[in-house]
UniProtKB/TrEMBL annotation, chain A:
Species in which this protein is naturally found: Harenicola maris
Bilayer topology annotation: Multi-pass membrane protein
Record flagged with keyword Oxidoreductase: no
InterPro entries for this protein: BPD_transp_1_N, MetI-like, MetI-like_sf
Official protein name in the record: ABC transporter permease
Span of domain ABC transmembrane type-1: 98-307
UniProtKB/TrEMBL annotation, chain B:
Organism classification: Bacteria, Pseudomonadati, Pseudomonadota, Alphaproteobacteria, Rhodobacterales
One Gene Ontology cellular component: outer membrane-bounded periplasmic space
GO biological process: peptide transport
Family that this chain belongs to: Belongs to the bacterial solute-binding protein 5 family.
Cell compartment(s), UniProt: Periplasm
InterPro entries on file: Peptide/Ni-bd (IPR030678), SBP_5 (IPR039424), SBP_5_CS (IPR023765), SBP_5_dom (IPR000914), TAT_signal (IPR006311)
Predominant location category: periplasm
The protein's name: Peptide ABC transporter
Positions of the Solute-binding protein family domain: 81-428
Length: 317, 514
C-alpha cells in the first residue's frame, strides 16, 4: 500500500511537471498580447508606446527561460503569481472560486446519485417493463440535450416566466443562505441532469448484468429477502463501474462546467479560466490548469482506492 | 450485523436525517437588511478588467471609473460638455486656457483638489513609461502652471478645438498627487467599498462630493453578466435596475413593456478594413471602392442587428456631430453593376480570391463577415472566412495577416476629430487598414483639430469626407444600435447619444432607483 502510494505520488508529480511545461509553452505559441488586449477594447486602441510600457510592467519582456524557471520554482511553493491584468493573486482567486465549482458539482452529483442509482436499479431489475422503457426514453433525451440548452430553458421557464427563482448570480452562503440556495438550485439541477443520465445508464446496465449471476440465484434460493439480495449482492457489485465513471466525470466537470457557470453567472473556476484565456492572462491560465490537473489526478487516485475497498480482490500493487 | 437497539449508534440513515435537518435549518431565511439607503443595481456586460484611471480598459470599466474619478471637464445629464472638477475655464488665447477649480472639491481621503494635483495628473499621463490612453493627446500640453491653489494655466503647443472634450474623457480623471500608483485616489461621486473580482463591484456615495445633493443613489452595485440573454433576464426578473448592451433582439420587447424603459442610440459602426501593403487587389483603391458598392447594407442591419441600426454610406461622422457632412455624390449605394465595373477597371474583370478576417468571439462580427462574404461572392470576389478568437484577431489585424477584415469601431465624443485614431496614419494597429497612409487625410485631420473657427472646421471636415471616399481608408457598413434598458421606476439615468454613449456614467449623479 505504501509503495503503491509513493509510486503514484511520484508519477503524479511527473505528470504535473509535464502539464505545467506544456501549458507554459503552448501559451506562448498562441497569438495574442495581453498588454495590447487590455488596452484595446470597444474599437479603441492605445498607442504602441503605451502598450510597450504595459508589457514592461507586466514582465513580459523577460527572457522566456527566466519566466519558465520562475514559474516552476513558484509553483512548487503553490505560488502561482499574480494576474497580469489587475495584479490580483492567482492563488487567492483560485481559492475563492474552486470551492464554488466543487459545490456546484457536488450538489449536482448528490441530486444525480440520489435519483440515478435507485432509478437505475429499479429499471435494471425489471428490464423492458414500463418504468424501464419510460426512464430509458427520458434518459436518452437528457443525454443528448446539452447543458446550455437546458440552462437557457430553465432560466426562461423558472426565472423569466414563473419567476420562482433568480435568473442567475451568486451570493455567499454566509451573506444570505436562502438566496444562496435559490441561486444554486437551477445550476445544480442542470449539472445534475447530465450526471443523472450517466449514473442511471451505468447503474441499469451494471445491475442488469449482476442479477443474472449464479451467486444472486443462490442468495435468492437460500431464502434471503429480495431487498437484501439486491442491496448486498447485486448493488454492491454493480456499483464499482458506476463509481469509476462518476469519478472520471467529476474530473471532467471541473473544467467543463464552464457553459453552465456562464449561463447562470456562477462565478466558479471555469469561468475564471475562460476569461483568463480570452485576456491571455498567462499566470491565471497556468494556475487554474495546474490545480485542475492536480485535482483530476487526485480524484482518480481516490477512485482507485475506493474501488479496492469495495472489492478486496483488487490488490494495489 | 449492526446493533439496531443501540441508541447511540448512528446509522447512515440517521446521519442523513441529521444532515438534512441541518441543511434545512441553515436554509431558513437569513436576517433581512433594513434598506438604509437606495442602492442602484447595474448589470455590466463584462467585469471591468482593471480600474486604472488613465488606461482605456473598455466600456464596462468606464462606468465604474466615472464613479470613482472625475476630470476637469465632464457632461451634464443632457450630455452637454460642462466644467466638472473645474468650476470655470477661460481661453486666454488659442493656445492658453486657465481653469478655476471648484472650491471645496475633495479627494476621497479628504484632501482638497488643488492645482498641484491637476499638474501631477497630466504629468503622470504623459510620463515616458505611461500606458495612458490619452498620452499622445495630452502631449499637446506644452506647460502647466499653478497660478494659485485652485487656478491652473495650460499652455498648448498648438491651438486645439477638442482639448476640452479630451479633458472630459473617462481616462482623464484627476488623481491626488500623493497617491500610491497601485491605488490612485480620485474625487468622483462614489468610493469603492466592496468588490469580488469577476463578480461585482459596490460603490458608496462620497459624502463630500463637490456637487450639492448628488449623487442621488446611496450605493451602486455593479454586477457582471457576460451572457447578454441572462443580463436581460436579470432585468426582467427585477434582479437589476439598469443594464447596458441590451441584446438587439430584445429592443422590441422592452419598447412595448410597461415595466421597462429603453434608452437607445446608434453608436459604434461596422466597417471593412484592408491590407493595402500587400501586393494584391486591395492595394488598388478602385477595388476597395468596389467593395463599397457591393454590399447591401440593410441586410447586415436586419440580419445581424435585428433591424436596429442604419446603413452607413459615407464617412462615419459621429451621430450628434455639430457638422452635417452627408453628400450623396461621395456616398456608397448598393450597386453591384458599378462594383463589377470598378473591378474590371482595376484589372480584375473575373474577380479574385482573398481571406476575410473576423472573429468568432463576437457573434455580430462573425455574422457581418458572413453577409459581406456572400455579397463579395456576387461580384466575383471569393473570400475565405478566417474567424479566430478575439485575441488572435487583434494580433492578425496588427500584423496585417489578412486581405480584408470586418470590424466594429467607435470613438469617444461626437466630433469628427474623434476619427483621428481611426484615420490618421501611425504605427500599425487593428483599428486601421494595414499599411494605409494618406498625407491628404493626415493634413485635413491636423487642420481640423487646430482650427478654432466653427465654419472653417466644417469646411475642413467636408473636405475630409471627400478624401474618405476617394482614398478609401475603409469601407463603412452600418451604424449599430446601442441601448440601456431599465426598470420604468428608475429616474434620472440617461443613455448619452452617439459616441458619448460609453460616457453615460456621468448620469449616475442624478440616477435614483425606486
Amino acid at each position: 500500500m505504501l509503495r503503491f502510494a509513493l509510486n503514484r505520488a511520484l508519477s503524479a508529480g511527473l505528470m504535473l511537471l509535464v502539464v505545467g511545461t506544456v501549458v507554459f509553452s503552448i501559451l506562448f505559441l498562441v497569438p495574442g498580447d495581453p498588454a495590447e488586449l487590455l488596452l484595446s477594447s470597444d474599437g479603441i486602441t492605445a498607442s504602441p508606446d503605451a502598450i510597450a510600457s504595459l508589457r514592461e510592467e507586466m514582465g513580459l519582456n523577460k527572457p522566456l527561460l527566466a519566466q519558465y524557471g520562475e514559474f516552476l520554482v513558484n509553483a512548487l511553493r503553490f505560488d502561482f503569481g499574480v494576474s497580469l491584468i489587475d495584479k490580483a493573486s492567482v492563488g487567492d482567486t483560485i481559492a475563492t472560486r474552486l470551492p464554488r465549482t466543487i459545490e456546484l458539482i457536488l450538489a449536482g452529483l448528490v441530486l444525480a446519485a440520489l435519483t440515478g442509482i435507485p432509478a437505475g436499479t429499479y429499471a435494471g431489475l425489471r428490464p423492458g417493463r414500463r418504468f424501464d422503457r419510460i426512464a430509458s426514453a427520458v434518459n436518452a433525451v437528457l443525454i443528448s440535450l446539452p447543458g446550455f440548452v437546458i440552462g437557457t430553458l430553465f432560466i426562461y421557464i423558472f426565472a423569466q416566466f414563473l419567476r420562482w427563482l433568480p435568473a442567475g448570480g451568486y451570493t455567499s452562503f454566509f451573506t444570505d443562505p436562502w438566496l444562496h440556495i435559490k441561486q444554486l438550485t437551477l445550476p445544480a439541477i442542470t449539472v445534475g441532469l447530465h450526471l443523472f443520465s450517466i449514473i442511471f445508464r451505468m447503474t441499469r446496465a451494471s445491475v442488469l448484468e449482476m442479477r443474472g449471476n449464479d451467486w444472486v440465484r443462490t442468495a435468492v434460493a437460500k431464502g434471503l429477502s429480495r431487498k437484501l439480495v439486491v442491496r448486498r449482492h447485486v448493488l454492491r457489485n454493480a456499483l464499482g463501474p458506476v463509481i469509476t465513471v462518476v469519478g472520471l466525470q467529476m474530473g471532467i466537470l471541473l473544467g467543463s462546467t464552464v457553459l453552465i457557470e456562464f449561463i447562470y453567472n456562477w462565478p466558479g473556476l471555469s469561468g475564471y479560466l475562460v476569461t483568463a484565456v480570452q485576456q491571455r492572462d498567462y499566470p491565471s491560465v497556468r494556475g487554474v490548469i495546474l490545480v485542475v490537473s492536480a485535482l483530476f489526478i487526485l480524484i482518480n487516485l481516490m477512485v482507485e482506492l475506493l474501488y479496492s475497498m469495495l472489492d478486496p480482490r483488487i490488490r494495489l500493487e | 450485523m449492526t446493533d439496531r437497539k443501540n441508541p447511540t449508534h448512528i446509522t447512515r440513515r440517521t446521519a442523513l436525517t441529521y444532515i438534512g435537518a441541518g441543511m434545512a435549518a441553515l436554509a431558513l431565511p437569513g436576517q433581512s437588511y433594513a434598506a438604509s439607503d437606495k442602492t442602484l443595481r447595474y448589470g455590466l456586460s463584462t467585469f471591468p478588467p482593471a480600474l486604472t484611471p488613465w488606461n482605456n480598459t473598455g466600456a464596462a470599466s468606464n462606468y465604474v471609473k466615472l464613479c470613482l474619478y472625475r476630470g476637469l471637464m465632464g457632461y451634464d445629464s443632457e450630455a452637454q460638455l460642462v466644467p466638472e472638477v473645474a468650476e470655470s475655464y477661460e481661453w486666454v488665447d488659442g493656445n492658453t486656457i486657465v481653469f478655476k477649480l471648484r472650491e471645496g472639491a475633495k479627494f476621497h481621503n479628504g484632501e482638497p483638489v488643488t492645482a498641484e494635483d491637476v499638474i501631477f495628473t497630466f504629468t503622470s499621463i504623459t510620463a515616458e513609461d505611461s500606458s495612458a490612453y490619452l498620452k499622445s493627446s495630452f502631449e499637446s500640453i506644452d506647460s502647466m502652471e499653478a497660478m494659485d491653489a485652485t487656478t491652473v494655466k495650460f499652455t498648448l503647443k498648438l491651438p486645439s478645438a477638442v482639448f476640452l472634450s479630451e479633458l472630459a474623457n473617462y481616462c482623464a480623471g484627476i488623481v491626488w498627487k500623493g497617491s500610491d500608483p497601485e491605488d490612485p485616489i480620485g474625487c468622483g461621486p462614489y468610493t469603492k467599498t466592496d468588490e469580488e473580482r469577476g463578480v461585482f463591484i459596490e460603490v458608496t456615495a462620497f459624502p463630500d462630493f463637490y456637487s450639492e445633493g448628488e449623487p442621488r443613489s446611496g450605493k451602486i452595485r455593479f454586477t457582471a453578466y457576460s451572457d447578454q440573454n441572462l443580463r436581460y433576464a436579470a432585468l426582467e426578473t427585477g434582479d437589476v435596475d439598469v443594464i447596458e448592451y441590451l441584446p438587439w433582439t430584445q429592443f422590441d420587447t422592452v419598447e412595448e413593456s410597461e415595466e421597462l424603459n429603453i434608452a437607445a442610440t446608434v453608436s459604434p459602426f461596422m466597417l471593412a478594413l484592408f491590407n493595402v501593403e500587400k501586393d494584391g487587389p486591395f492595394k488598388n483603391p478602385l477595388v476597395r471602392r468596389a467593395v463599397g458598392y457591393a454590399i447591401q447594407r440593410q441586410d447586415v442591419v436586419d440580419g445581424v442587428f435585428a433591424g436596429r441600426g442604419t446603413p452607413l454610406l459615407g464617412i462615419p461622422n459621429p451621430p450628434g456631430s455639430p457638422y452635417d457632412l452627408s453628400d450623396p455624390s461621395i456616398e456608397y449605394s448598393y450597386d453591384p453593376e458599378k462594383a463589377k465595373a470598378l473591378l474590371a477597371e482595376a484589372g480584375y474583370p473575373n474577380g479574385f480570391s482573398c481571406r476575410l478576417l473576423g472573429t468568432s468571439t463576437y457573434g455580430m462580427h462573425q455574422d457581418t463577415a458572413a453577409i459581406v462574404q456572400a455579397y463579395l461572392q456576387m461580384i466575383g470576389i471569393n473570400a475565405t472566412l478566417d474567424l479566430p478568437d478575439w485575441a488572435t484577431r487583434v494580433k492578425k489585424g496588427k500584423d496585417g495577416d489578412y486581405d480584408i477584415a470586418v470590424h466594429g469601431l467607435s470613438g469617444f465624443y461626437n466630433d469628427p476629430n474623434a476619427l483621428w485614431p481611426l484615420l490618421h496614419s501611425g504605427p500599425s494597429n487593428y483599428t486601421r487598414s494595414f499599411g494605409f497612409a494618406s498625407d491628404r487625410i493626415d493634413d485635413l485631420l491636423e487642420r481640423g483639430r487646430a482650427a478654432m473657427d466653427e465654419a472653417e472646421r466644417e469646411e475642413i471636415y467636408k473636405e475630409l469626407a471627400v478624401a474618405y471616399y476617394e482614398e478609401v481608408p475603409q469601407i463603412p457598413i452600418n451604424w449599430r444600435g446601442q441601448a440601456h434598458a431599465m426598470q420604468a421606476s428608475v429616474k434620472g439615468f440617461k443613455g448619452f447619444p452617439g459616441w458619448l454613449n460609453t460616457s453615460s456614467g456621468f448620469s449616475f449623479d442624478t440616477t435614483e432607483p425606486s
